[in-house]
Amino acid sequence: MPEQITEIIIIARYILIALAIVGVIVLAFGIYHRNKKLIGRGAYLIILSIVVSVCGYVIYEKTKQRTYQMLQNTYITY
Fold first, then answer.
1. DSSP letters for the chain
2. The pTM is what?
3. Tens-place pLDDT, residues 1-12
4. Distance between CA atoms of 8 and 13, rounded to whole angstroms?
5. Torsion from C-alpha of 12, 63, 55, 22, nearest 10 degrees
6. CB atoms inside a 10 Å sphere around CB 19
């Protein structure tokens, strides 16, 4: 189970990196053409990717901590 969560989080990180790159491209294109609408969209994409990345990091750390605690509380009897 923890391996699956880790794989999902790695894929999500790549998606968020791609989202941030698209945001930077849209922002640069908006600045180049002096289009306020594109500048706003690019900025929103960058902010969205940062916020979701921080939330994902917090969720990952909490999941890792809970998994560690669960494994520590598991008793194996023979």
1. -HHHHHHHHHHHHHHHHHHHHHHHHHHHHHHHHT-HHHHHHHHHHHHHHHHHHHHHHHHHHHHHHHHHHHHHT-----
2. 0.71
3. 567 777 887 888
4. 9
5. -10
6. 17
- Domain ranges for the chain, please list them: 2-72
Q: If we measure between CA atoms, which residue out of 16, 17, 13, 37 comes closest to residue 27?
A: 37
> By C-alpha distance, which of 2, 9, 5 is closest to 55?
9
Are the C-beta atoms of 23 and 38 separated by less than 8 Å? no
What's the one-letter identity of residue 71?
A: L
